[in-house]
Hints:
The complex is a heterodimer of chains A (115) and B (111).
Chain A: E1 4-7, E2 10-13, E3 19-25, E4 31-37, E5 44-49, E6 56-57, E7 65-67, E8 73-78, E9 87-94, E10 105-106, E11 110-114
Chain B: E1 4-7, E2 10-14, E3 19-25, E4 29-37, E5 43-49, E6 52-56, E7 59-64, E8 69-74, E9 83-91, E10 99-101, E11 105-110
Parallel strand pairs in B: 2-11
Antiparallel strand pairs in B: 1-3, 3-8, 4-5, 4-9, 6-7, 7-8, 9-10, 9-11
Amino acid sequence: xxxxxxTPKFRVLKTGQxxxxxxxxxxxHEYMYWYRQDPGMGLRLIxxxxxxxxxxxxxxxxxYNVSRLKKQxxxxxxxxxxxxQTSVYFCASSYSTSGKNNEQFFGPGTRLxxx
Amino acid sequence: xxxxxxxxxxxxxxxxxxxxxNCSYSVGISALHWLQQHPGGGIVSLFMLSSGKKKHGRLIxxxxxxxxxxxxxxxxxxPRDSAVYICAVRSRGFWRNQFYFGxxxxxxVIP
Lengths: 115, 111
């Protein structure tokens, strides 16, 4: 099992450009999450999905869109990148949200710089 | 205001020392997680707690629900324990899918 994978690992964008980050998991997890990690701050939830075809806003959703067309994939899109979106982005997945199955498995992260 | 506060922010220890990292939270939770982030950036889950105490090798995690406090202990610390340790809580109720994360404790264990 590959677990949770993210592509790309690094990306540099110019202000106004768009891009899509791809997260894939092979654990048949229902729940998937996108976080951003900034210096001096804890991980913050951008969007999440509780199953194929569903998405919901997290704590910091502005400037991002997501899609979950297939259960194993969760895409994070930036339509018009801004320097404030310079961050490290982590994807995570979990089987459920209750009991011992709510452990989150994290991807390796994507380091995004917006100039 | 941070829903999850960790202390200390930075910690340096000599190999073999007993280490304690503290986590306090202000929201109602269904579970608390301890995560480890290695210098390369990868994040792994160490523990999930909803009550009491758990032990895995040299790591021990405890939680006091009434006091809204958790501790992560490392016995006989080793340089390979050097990492950032993150406390995260899953909130109850309407925002039950929301995780709140502490800013992490950066641990360096010196040989």
